[in-house]
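Each letter names a residue; structure tokens follow underneath. Both lines appear below:
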Amino acid sequence: MPRRVSFPLPSSLLPLFLAGALAGCAPALDWRDVPVGEDLLIQFPCRPERVERRVDLGGESVAARMLSCEAGGIGWSVTVFDIGDPYRLADALMLLRRSLSSNLRAEEVVGPMPALAALTPQPTSRRLRLQGRGAEGAPLEAEALFAARGLQALQVVAIRRDGPASRWRDWAGEFIGSLHARP
């Protein structure tokens, strides 16, 4: 009969052992509903920071509110721009799209628009996949949504700089597709 050998774990090391074992099981992304403006929610995979400021958009100063965080090697952000003028909304979406592509030095591939009931139909709304280079020249990829909600322009972006390539597009799709109206 084989002899059983045991290595007793000193009780003082048990909490460290359990913490290490649980950390190995912790998910890379911790999804949660986060309010975006007054009447929208989105699922963020991390706790976002909030920044509010005025930005120049096509020669006009508009209020912008951004939520952003990093998790799983991916940058996640949602920015809401208060356009205020229905005749400027289509142009604002185009400007935002061109600005992101230019900043990322990226080529655009237009993807299918998600069917999100929370969005206002707009001919310049787009879902994009971008491939470009960061400031240091390192390759990056992004999934983005440019859409309208009333008189607001929305920019929803997930950027992978060095995160895992295997699941990032699935995660980006979950993020963008989770945008919904508050109940």
